[in-house]
Design goal:
The protein is α/β, with parallel strands linked by helices. 36% of the residues lie in helices and 17% in strands. The model has no long low-confidence stretch (mean pLDDT 96).
Amino acid sequence: MATVFKKPHALKDLTLHYCPGCTHGIIHRIIAEVIDELDIEGKTIGVSPVGCTYNNYEYFNCDMVQAAHGRAPAVATGIKRVNPDNVVFTYQGDGDLAAIGTAEIIHAATRGENITSIFVNNAIYGMTSGQMAPTTLINQVTTTSPFGRKAEDHGFPINVSEMLATLKGAAFIERVSMHDIKNINNAKKAVKKAFQVQMAKKGFAIVEILSSCPTNWGLNPVESLKWIKENMVPQYPLGNYKGKDLEV
């Protein structure tokens, strides 16, 4: 009997702690599949800071390092400079990368650090009870914007991919989504390209992934996927923002 589906070796055989319907688990699998396909498990080092995925070192078979909140790009920079032949990636949420870690990601990108960042954007603080994040949408209700986010009071959502695309040091930037099978497959292709960009020593690469947070959105898993498509995608258009034709 032909094997058509199996657990990637780079992902441990453990039950994930994420809420039902959260797409972090799918993103983990995508990364693990890419690590397997590129045969880089033994040379890959991941960096995770504070957030819902703070303990994803429990799930990946590659080496993992814990960083302080927002500081994953700085830690990854140090690791990569000391170990230039290793493949180094960060795994960060929007509350981490686009808030306390904004300076870290901007300067890592503008320096052209040869690392890969996986940026999971679910437009809310998932770990700490659903507060407004830098990527929270206008009129989106959160625990700290109970009447909805208002531009005049809270400012506008930050479009991270578009912002980083203006920096000369950034080599590859793409935004993808988890809301259906087609886009999940596109997300895997983008993650693989981002890793290959690093392996080819082309410079900084980031993949922004629109993800769900059913618990803090107050929606069921199916409604959450629909919400990504109908609400997040218009604010955060999918596609490549830099390095689409980069040869790796």
